[in-house]
Design goal:
Layout (H helix, E strand, L loop, with lengths): L15 E4 L4 E4 L5 E3 L14 H7 L31 H37 L4 H16 L8 H15 L6 H8 L3 H15 L12 H7 L4 H16 L8 H15 L6 H8 L3 H15 L2 H8 L1
Antiparallel strand pairs: 1-2, 2-3
Helix pairs in contact: 2-3, 2-4, 3-4, 4-5, 4-6, 5-6, 8-9, 9-10, 9-11, 10-11
The structure holds a DNA duplex.
DNA sequence: AAGACGAAAGTGGTTGA
DNA sequence: TCAACAACTTTCGTCTT
């Protein structure tokens, strides 16, 4: 705690004065300006009771796409002032209310359902909040563009989630999403492509490296093996072994090789199951890795 | 006996005419 | 729109440890 007390660097005094108006901290003893041009993040008003708080606060709850109206609901009022108006004006209000109701219910009812589903799948896959937000945004856009028509709501939700995962570099495989949402893998892939194309969302081809940590921990591999796998992967990318191949296959093969080198052998079967590819694919990638990267010697020396 | 390896045939998706 | 094609899977038989 003692180290937390600020001392004046000039004279060593501890009588520092915070001058909020000027944004400065000044040493009372020697007048040295320790910090200046500070930004005051506090509120500049005071609240003594709830009424005053309501009046003085200028912000509300944080805005979020995971609420169907981004957390900012506004209705055309029903009670109070309306009844002070008469005749025409009052009817106008009622008409507006009716229209707002009609417009909003169609889209919002859909959004409410979809976002509930989105959260369910998201939490099942243990996705970070940022990804949920992103996919909610994508879904909202899709609904507004009428892209859901003719497709099941669930599949579009899954597609949005998949896209969001990719963009945030926490890729989940289509299989995982399929399992979590109960939607056919092909269907998710289709809507994913459709939605991203229509919305002009640019997705980088997913990087095998992003899969490594998850696979590695699922296989209970050591951190060294994991970083070894990253090394191998980078080498592989230099030799252009990665383009055109499925990223999961490459990631799996790198892990498999890395495990061999570090004497943490896993069977091809185990690695394949977790990565969601077959042994054959791992074998093919594995073969290529050995050939191009001259890793054969390394494995042998370890074995001996 | 289990795991690794390889060949052959099948599948879904992309591409180019 | 259709055929060719590459990547990946499935299946199955053989080899190694």
């Amino acid at each position: 705690m003692a180290s937390n007390i600020k001392k004046c660097p000039e004279c060593g005094g501890i009588n520092l004065i915070l001058n909020k108006d000027r944004g400065e901290i000044i040493c009372k003893d020697c007048g040295f300006v320790i910090e200046e041009k500070m930004v005051d993040f506090g509120q500049e008003w005071r609240e003594f009771d709830h009424d005053q708080a309501d009046k003085r606060r200028r912000t509300g709850a944080p805005m979020t796409y995971t609420k169907f109206d981004k957390g900012l609901g506004t209705d055309i009022g029903q009670k109070g002032d309306v009844y002070k108006l008469s005749g025409k004006e009052r009817n106008k209000y009622f008409r507006l209310r009716k229209w707002q109701y009609r417009i909003s219910t169609a889209i919002e009812r859909n959004l409410k359902l979809a976002l509930a589903e989105l959260k369910r799948v998201g939490s099942y896959l243990k996705l970070p909040k940022s990804v949920e937000e992103e996919s909610a945004r994508i879904y909202t856009l899709a609904v507004q563009r009428g892209l859901v028509r003719g497709r099941s709501m669930e599949s579009v939700v899954s597609g949005a989630l998949y896209a969001a995962c990719r963009r945030h570099e926490v890729p989940r495989t289509l299989d995982e999403l399929s399992e979590a949402s109960g939607i056919d893998k092909k269907e998710i892939g289709r809507t994913y492509r459709f939605v991203t194309r229509e919305l002009g969302i640019r997705i980088l081809p997913s990087n095998p490296v992003d899969y490594l940590p998850r696979f590695a921990s699922a296989l209970k591999l050591s951190a060294e093996t994991q970083s070894k796998a990253v090394e191998i992967l980078e080498l592989a990318q230099k030799h252009e072994l990665t383009s055109g191949r499925g990223p999961t296959g490459i990631a799996a093969a790198s892990l498999y090789v890395a495990a061999l080198i570090n004497n943490e052998k896993r069977t091809q079967r185990e690695v394949a199951d977790i990565a969601g590819v077959t042994e054959v694919t791992i074998r093919n990638r594995y073969k290529e890795l050995l050939k191009k990267l001259n890793l054969k010697d390394k494995i042998k020396t370890k074995k001996e």
